[in-house]
Write a structure and sequence with these properties.
CATH superfamily of the largest domain: Medium-chain alcohol dehydrogenases, catalytic domain
Shape: globular
Largest sheet: 7 strands, mixed
Low-confidence stretches: none
Number of helices: 9
Helix content: 25-40%
CATH class of the largest domain: Alpha Beta
Distance between the termini: 12 Å
Mean pLDDT: 98
Strand content: 25-35%
Number of strands: 17
CATH architecture of the largest domain: Alpha-Beta Complex
Radius of gyration: 19 Å
Length: 307
Protein backbone atom coordinates (compact mmCIF):
# COMPACT_ATOMS: atom_id res chain seq x y z
CA UNK A 1 0.00 0.00 0.00
CA UNK A 2 0.99 3.65 -0.37
CA UNK A 3 1.22 5.72 2.78
CA UNK A 4 2.55 9.03 4.09
CA UNK A 5 5.50 8.29 6.37
CA UNK A 6 7.77 9.99 8.90
CA UNK A 7 11.08 8.26 9.67
CA UNK A 8 11.91 10.58 12.56
CA UNK A 9 10.31 13.46 14.40
CA UNK A 10 9.94 16.47 12.14
CA UNK A 11 7.64 18.78 10.24
CA UNK A 12 5.91 18.80 6.85
CA UNK A 13 9.19 18.61 4.92
CA UNK A 14 9.93 15.20 6.48
CA UNK A 15 6.68 13.62 5.19
CA UNK A 16 7.21 11.19 2.30
CA UNK A 17 4.88 9.06 0.19
CA UNK A 18 6.12 5.50 -0.09
CA UNK A 19 5.13 1.87 -0.40
CA UNK A 20 4.71 -0.15 2.80
CA UNK A 21 3.43 -3.66 3.52
CA UNK A 22 -0.33 -3.97 3.97
CA UNK A 23 -1.39 -3.95 7.65
CA UNK A 24 -2.01 -7.20 9.48
CA UNK A 25 -5.58 -7.70 10.70
CA UNK A 26 -5.79 -8.91 14.30
CA UNK A 27 -8.82 -10.57 15.98
CA UNK A 28 -11.53 -8.00 16.52
CA UNK A 29 -10.19 -5.78 13.73
CA UNK A 30 -11.25 -4.98 10.19
CA UNK A 31 -9.12 -3.84 7.28
CA UNK A 32 -10.44 -0.58 5.83
CA UNK A 33 -9.76 0.60 2.27
CA UNK A 34 -9.36 4.30 2.98
CA UNK A 35 -11.41 6.73 0.93
CA UNK A 36 -10.49 9.83 2.92
CA UNK A 37 -8.62 10.87 6.04
CA UNK A 38 -8.79 14.07 8.05
CA UNK A 39 -5.94 16.35 9.12
CA UNK A 40 -5.97 17.40 12.76
CA UNK A 41 -3.48 19.60 14.66
CA UNK A 42 -2.60 16.64 16.85
CA UNK A 43 -1.18 14.90 13.77
CA UNK A 44 1.62 17.40 13.22
CA UNK A 45 2.12 17.88 16.95
CA UNK A 46 2.83 14.16 17.27
CA UNK A 47 5.04 14.35 14.19
CA UNK A 48 7.08 17.13 15.78
CA UNK A 49 7.55 15.13 18.97
CA UNK A 50 5.44 17.40 21.17
CA UNK A 51 3.57 14.42 22.68
CA UNK A 52 6.61 12.18 23.12
CA UNK A 53 6.40 12.28 26.91
CA UNK A 54 2.78 11.13 26.77
CA UNK A 55 2.45 8.67 23.89
CA UNK A 56 4.49 5.62 22.88
CA UNK A 57 5.59 6.36 19.31
CA UNK A 58 7.36 4.11 16.80
CA UNK A 59 8.94 4.73 13.41
CA UNK A 60 8.38 4.57 10.51
CA UNK A 61 5.27 6.50 11.51
CA UNK A 62 2.09 6.86 9.46
CA UNK A 63 0.20 9.90 10.86
CA UNK A 64 -3.55 10.25 11.19
CA UNK A 65 -6.39 9.06 13.39
CA UNK A 66 -9.49 9.95 11.31
CA UNK A 67 -10.70 7.59 8.59
CA UNK A 68 -13.63 6.98 6.28
CA UNK A 69 -13.61 3.98 3.99
CA UNK A 70 -14.88 0.54 3.00
CA UNK A 71 -14.28 -2.71 4.88
CA UNK A 72 -11.97 -4.85 2.74
CA UNK A 73 -11.42 -7.77 5.11
CA UNK A 74 -12.48 -8.82 8.62
CA UNK A 75 -10.39 -10.38 11.34
CA UNK A 76 -11.18 -13.34 13.56
CA UNK A 77 -14.43 -13.12 15.54
CA UNK A 78 -15.71 -9.89 13.97
CA UNK A 79 -19.51 -9.82 14.10
CA UNK A 80 -20.17 -6.13 13.66
CA UNK A 81 -19.03 -5.52 10.07
CA UNK A 82 -18.79 -7.36 6.77
CA UNK A 83 -16.75 -6.83 3.62
CA UNK A 84 -18.20 -3.89 1.69
CA UNK A 85 -19.56 -2.00 4.70
CA UNK A 86 -18.90 1.75 4.72
CA UNK A 87 -17.40 2.92 8.02
CA UNK A 88 -15.85 5.87 9.81
CA UNK A 89 -13.46 5.74 12.70
CA UNK A 90 -11.35 7.50 15.27
CA UNK A 91 -8.61 4.94 14.73
CA UNK A 92 -6.34 5.85 17.64
CA UNK A 93 -4.32 2.84 18.74
CA UNK A 94 -2.43 2.22 21.97
CA UNK A 95 0.87 2.91 20.21
CA UNK A 96 1.33 5.66 17.61
CA UNK A 97 2.62 4.24 14.34
CA UNK A 98 0.09 2.80 11.89
CA UNK A 99 -2.22 5.73 11.18
CA UNK A 100 -4.76 6.65 8.54
CA UNK A 101 -2.73 8.62 5.96
CA UNK A 102 -2.63 5.45 3.90
CA UNK A 103 -4.53 3.36 1.38
CA UNK A 104 -5.29 0.72 4.04
CA UNK A 105 -5.68 0.78 7.81
CA UNK A 106 -6.53 -1.95 10.30
CA UNK A 107 -8.82 -0.82 13.11
CA UNK A 108 -10.55 -2.49 16.03
CA UNK A 109 -14.33 -2.50 15.74
CA UNK A 110 -14.59 -0.51 19.00
CA UNK A 111 -13.08 2.45 17.13
CA UNK A 112 -15.58 2.39 14.23
CA UNK A 113 -19.16 3.31 13.38
CA UNK A 114 -21.29 3.14 10.23
CA UNK A 115 -20.62 5.96 7.78
CA UNK A 116 -23.46 8.52 7.78
CA UNK A 117 -25.22 8.44 4.43
CA UNK A 118 -25.72 12.22 4.53
CA UNK A 119 -21.96 12.91 4.43
CA UNK A 120 -19.59 12.42 1.51
CA UNK A 121 -16.27 10.66 2.07
CA UNK A 122 -14.27 13.75 3.01
CA UNK A 123 -16.99 15.06 5.32
CA UNK A 124 -17.28 11.65 6.95
CA UNK A 125 -13.52 11.54 7.52
CA UNK A 126 -13.69 14.95 9.21
CA UNK A 127 -16.27 13.86 11.76
CA UNK A 128 -14.64 11.39 14.19
CA UNK A 129 -11.90 13.15 16.19
CA UNK A 130 -13.36 16.66 16.05
CA UNK A 131 -16.93 15.48 16.48
CA UNK A 132 -16.12 13.23 19.42
CA UNK A 133 -14.08 16.00 21.05
CA UNK A 134 -16.98 18.42 20.80
CA UNK A 135 -19.65 15.90 21.78
CA UNK A 136 -17.79 14.52 24.79
CA UNK A 137 -16.83 17.94 26.14
CA UNK A 138 -20.41 19.20 25.91
CA UNK A 139 -21.88 16.03 27.40
CA UNK A 140 -19.39 16.07 30.26
CA UNK A 141 -20.60 19.58 31.12
CA UNK A 142 -24.19 18.37 31.03
CA UNK A 143 -25.23 20.76 28.27
CA UNK A 144 -28.91 20.51 27.48
CA UNK A 145 -32.13 22.42 26.75
CA UNK A 146 -32.22 25.94 28.14
CA UNK A 147 -28.46 26.30 28.54
CA UNK A 148 -26.45 29.13 27.01
CA UNK A 149 -23.02 27.87 25.91
CA UNK A 150 -19.94 29.87 24.98
CA UNK A 151 -17.86 28.10 22.31
CA UNK A 152 -14.33 29.40 21.81
CA UNK A 153 -12.85 29.04 18.29
CA UNK A 154 -16.33 28.27 17.01
CA UNK A 155 -15.38 28.37 13.32
CA UNK A 156 -12.61 25.77 13.60
CA UNK A 157 -12.81 22.03 13.12
CA UNK A 158 -13.92 21.17 16.65
CA UNK A 159 -15.74 24.44 17.28
CA UNK A 160 -17.93 24.30 14.18
CA UNK A 161 -19.10 20.84 15.19
CA UNK A 162 -19.45 21.93 18.81
CA UNK A 163 -21.81 24.72 17.78
CA UNK A 164 -24.06 22.29 15.91
CA UNK A 165 -23.96 19.61 18.61
CA UNK A 166 -24.80 22.11 21.35
CA UNK A 167 -27.72 23.32 19.25
CA UNK A 168 -28.84 19.71 18.71
CA UNK A 169 -28.74 19.23 22.49
CA UNK A 170 -31.12 22.17 22.85
CA UNK A 171 -28.71 24.93 23.89
CA UNK A 172 -28.30 28.52 22.81
CA UNK A 173 -24.77 29.10 21.47
CA UNK A 174 -22.49 32.13 21.52
CA UNK A 175 -19.40 31.51 19.42
CA UNK A 176 -16.10 33.37 19.18
CA UNK A 177 -14.48 33.92 15.78
CA UNK A 178 -12.91 36.56 13.58
CA UNK A 179 -15.38 38.82 11.81
CA UNK A 180 -14.82 37.07 8.48
CA UNK A 181 -16.39 33.93 10.01
CA UNK A 182 -19.44 35.56 11.61
CA UNK A 183 -21.84 34.72 8.77
CA UNK A 184 -20.54 31.16 8.82
CA UNK A 185 -21.37 30.90 12.52
CA UNK A 186 -24.83 32.36 12.01
CA UNK A 187 -25.47 29.68 9.38
CA UNK A 188 -24.50 27.04 11.96
CA UNK A 189 -26.93 28.50 14.50
CA UNK A 190 -24.56 30.49 16.73
CA UNK A 191 -24.54 34.12 17.79
CA UNK A 192 -21.03 35.33 16.85
CA UNK A 193 -18.72 37.52 18.89
CA UNK A 194 -15.26 38.71 17.88
CA UNK A 195 -12.42 37.30 19.95
CA UNK A 196 -9.69 39.53 21.41
CA UNK A 197 -9.63 42.39 23.92
CA UNK A 198 -13.03 43.06 25.43
CA UNK A 199 -14.42 39.59 24.65
CA UNK A 200 -15.96 39.12 28.09
CA UNK A 201 -17.84 42.41 27.74
CA UNK A 202 -19.14 41.43 24.31
CA UNK A 203 -20.37 38.10 25.67
CA UNK A 204 -22.10 39.91 28.54
CA UNK A 205 -23.90 42.12 26.04
CA UNK A 206 -25.51 38.98 24.60
CA UNK A 207 -25.91 37.20 27.94
CA UNK A 208 -26.17 39.82 30.72
CA UNK A 209 -26.63 37.16 33.40
CA UNK A 210 -23.69 35.11 32.16
CA UNK A 211 -23.50 31.78 30.34
CA UNK A 212 -24.21 28.33 31.74
CA UNK A 213 -21.19 26.57 30.21
CA UNK A 214 -18.07 27.32 28.18
CA UNK A 215 -15.88 25.09 26.01
CA UNK A 216 -12.35 26.12 25.05
CA UNK A 217 -11.08 24.66 21.79
CA UNK A 218 -8.18 27.08 21.23
CA UNK A 219 -6.23 27.91 24.41
CA UNK A 220 -4.73 31.35 25.00
CA UNK A 221 -6.90 33.43 27.32
CA UNK A 222 -10.10 31.48 26.62
CA UNK A 223 -10.26 29.92 30.08
CA UNK A 224 -9.61 33.25 31.82
CA UNK A 225 -12.37 34.90 29.78
CA UNK A 226 -14.69 32.00 30.53
CA UNK A 227 -14.26 32.43 34.29
CA UNK A 228 -15.55 35.98 33.92
CA UNK A 229 -18.77 35.05 32.14
CA UNK A 230 -19.73 31.52 33.23
CA UNK A 231 -22.00 31.14 36.24
CA UNK A 232 -20.07 28.27 37.85
CA UNK A 233 -16.47 27.37 36.90
CA UNK A 234 -17.10 23.63 37.09
CA UNK A 235 -18.92 24.04 33.77
CA UNK A 236 -15.82 25.14 31.88
CA UNK A 237 -14.02 22.53 29.75
CA UNK A 238 -10.80 22.95 27.79
CA UNK A 239 -8.92 20.72 25.38
CA UNK A 240 -6.04 23.19 25.15
CA UNK A 241 -5.30 24.62 28.61
CA UNK A 242 -4.53 22.36 31.61
CA UNK A 243 -4.80 25.47 33.78
CA UNK A 244 -8.57 25.10 33.57
CA UNK A 245 -8.35 22.62 36.45
CA UNK A 246 -6.91 25.34 38.70
CA UNK A 247 -10.16 27.30 38.40
CA UNK A 248 -12.35 24.24 38.97
CA UNK A 249 -12.99 23.33 35.33
CA UNK A 250 -12.23 20.19 33.33
CA UNK A 251 -9.22 19.44 31.14
CA UNK A 252 -10.20 16.89 28.50
CA UNK A 253 -8.74 14.51 25.95
CA UNK A 254 -11.06 12.82 23.45
CA UNK A 255 -11.74 9.09 23.88
CA UNK A 256 -12.62 6.58 21.17
CA UNK A 257 -16.27 5.56 21.44
CA UNK A 258 -18.22 3.61 18.88
CA UNK A 259 -21.47 4.54 20.64
CA UNK A 260 -20.72 8.28 20.61
CA UNK A 261 -19.55 8.15 16.99
CA UNK A 262 -22.72 6.30 16.00
CA UNK A 263 -24.80 9.01 17.69
CA UNK A 264 -22.92 11.71 15.75
CA UNK A 265 -23.71 9.78 12.57
CA UNK A 266 -27.40 9.81 13.48
CA UNK A 267 -27.25 13.58 13.98
CA UNK A 268 -25.75 13.93 10.50
CA UNK A 269 -28.35 11.69 8.90
CA UNK A 270 -31.14 13.56 10.75
CA UNK A 271 -29.92 16.85 9.29
CA UNK A 272 -28.76 18.26 12.63
CA UNK A 273 -25.04 18.10 11.88
CA UNK A 274 -22.77 18.58 8.90
CA UNK A 275 -19.01 18.84 8.44
CA UNK A 276 -17.61 21.87 6.68
CA UNK A 277 -14.55 20.95 4.62
CA UNK A 278 -12.31 23.93 3.97
CA UNK A 279 -9.90 22.20 1.59
CA UNK A 280 -9.22 18.73 0.21
CA UNK A 281 -5.73 17.53 -0.73
CA UNK A 282 -4.63 14.34 -2.45
CA UNK A 283 -2.74 11.98 -0.16
CA UNK A 284 0.57 12.91 -1.79
CA UNK A 285 0.08 16.54 -0.68
CA UNK A 286 -0.27 15.82 3.04
CA UNK A 287 2.72 18.09 3.74
CA UNK A 288 0.88 21.10 2.33
CA UNK A 289 -2.18 20.21 4.41
CA UNK A 290 0.02 20.22 7.52
CA UNK A 291 1.40 23.65 6.62
CA UNK A 292 -2.09 25.06 6.26
CA UNK A 293 -3.22 23.43 9.52
CA UNK A 294 -0.26 24.96 11.34
CA UNK A 295 -1.40 28.44 10.31
CA UNK A 296 -4.46 27.99 12.54
CA UNK A 297 -6.90 29.79 10.27
CA UNK A 298 -8.86 26.89 8.85
CA UNK A 299 -12.64 27.21 8.68
CA UNK A 300 -13.96 23.75 9.52
CA UNK A 301 -11.79 20.81 8.49
CA UNK A 302 -8.97 19.82 6.16
CA UNK A 303 -9.19 16.44 4.44
CA UNK A 304 -7.00 14.06 2.42
CA UNK A 305 -8.58 12.22 -0.49
CA UNK A 306 -7.09 8.74 -0.70
CA UNK A 307 -9.42 7.18 -3.26
Amino acid sequence: MKAIVLHQYGGPDELTLQDLPDPKVAPGEVLVRVKAASVNPVDWKIGAGHLDAMMETHFPLIPGWDVAGVVEAVGLDVQEYAVGDEVIGYARKDNVQLGTYAELVAANVRLLAPKPAALDWTQAAGLPLAGLTAYQSLKRLGVGPGDTVLVHAAAGGVGSLGVQIARALGARVIGTASERNHDFLRDLGAEPVTYGDGLADRVRELAPDGVDAAVDYVGGDAVEVSTRVVRTPDRIASIADPGVEEVGGRYMWVRPSSADLTELGRMADDGRLTVHIDRVYPLAEAAEAWRVSQEGRTRGKLALSVD
